[in-house]
Please model this.
Amino acid sequence: MSIEHPRAADEPTAAPAYVAPPLTPDAAAPRAAPVAAAAASNSHKLGERPLWRRLFGLAGRALRVLAIVFGLWLFAVLIAIMLYTRLDPPFTMLTAAAKLSGRTVQQVWVPLDQISPALIRAVILSEDTGFCRHLGVSLGEIEKAMEQSKDGIPRGASTISMQLTKNLFLWPQRSYVRKALEIPLTLAMEQVLSKRRILEIYLNVAQLGPNVFGAEAAARYHFKKPASRLVEQEAALMAATLPAPGTRRPGRPSAMLTRLGHNLETRMRIAGGRAEACVLD
Model:
């Protein structure tokens, strides 16, 4: 038989354990809202950069893309130069532009030995008297042209090799950018192609009439004969057409073109065969 002892009146009773009431959506919202707002604020601060930094990043990406494109273009140009030791260029920048615009291009490719020696001499004396001596670029002529130029962009001073580089790979408008590209590419081309090959390509791609390219097509267009049969007077008129092939007509020369051709013909007779000695066998 158990005996129950009565609890003393002053003995403390154990307090029941506190159980937190469940949070209702309405009660949780005030606590969650400041946390979400702080997170959104931090995310906004991390994601947003100053305008100048964003512009700088865009400029950097654009420069990287341009560098890649330029590198691919330069690689293609160097490969093309090596191929042109054996292969004839399928087009130039001018012939491509003419064809894309819907114009009919007249061009007939012939080897150098099927072009009159008189025309070879006339072109060298007219366009580049030092062709057989320089390495593709005449720095003295470029400096002289820059000093004489009013707007600072060199006019003239382009050797036959530089003109060929421009025709094959660059654009016709004068600019410092074009010259900056033209000079190293010409020096590279002179290391790969012989003088004879450079002149052969040039005489087959140079514009010598309205949409007429190359000596053979020009001789047929202006004189109704092949380039191999051109005489000195005809060759001089053809060479004098090179600076303005769209307006000068060697088959029906103006007084100015007749005078230019006569002066060039006189120079041809004085020079004899020395001017073209490096390209003729």
Observations:
- The beta strands are 106-107, 207-209, 212-213.
- Residues 51-83 form the longest helix (33 residues).
